[in-house]
Sequence to fold (215 residues):
Amino acid sequence: MVGASARRRVVSLAMLRAVSCHRSASTSGWAQSQEVRAFARSMDEHGAIVEAVVAARGAEGYASPCPVVGASVGAHLRHSLEHARCCADAVAALRAGEAAPVARYDARERDEALETDPARAVAYGAAVRDAVLAGAGLDLDAAVRAAFALSADAADGDVALPSTVRRELAFVAHHATHHFAMINLIAKGHLAMDLREGLGRAPATRRDDAAKHKR
Fold:
């Protein structure tokens, strides 16, 4: 179990930006790995969604909650971006020499301004992406722990599960896909607009679609 007293210091967004400025300009094996590429694509997709929604419906549309879903485009992006930030914090901690840092997904920052400020959301996603790209030289199989709340009773604390950087990068990208699907529903049903075709369809689903099309 991981209690509140064991929570490590959260890396600030400014620090993430500073880390990103030191990444190598050359293409590294780290940056070309499937997991890092999926993470980076996911962060770019967050930004593309913000830009598309704001272009069509303005900042008001970005922040407008759908009465059926009970959340806005901004709310879903905030939730997903903050999960990505937890993973980026673990990568930054590994670079700083910490052993088996914890990605605390359910003790995340919850920056509500991300739900209403499109420019902040775009900048946040870019900083998180670049902080992970700055991990060149790290072992993708380096040990980390992923902490989750499995009980609504605060006395139970969070459970820290053994994991690797590789697995957590993949988790964040996969997790985002499901929020993109919800965002697609909000865009169509609440904002009366279309986002890019295929948004929110998981890679395995797209593979299956392609296989069926070939038959």
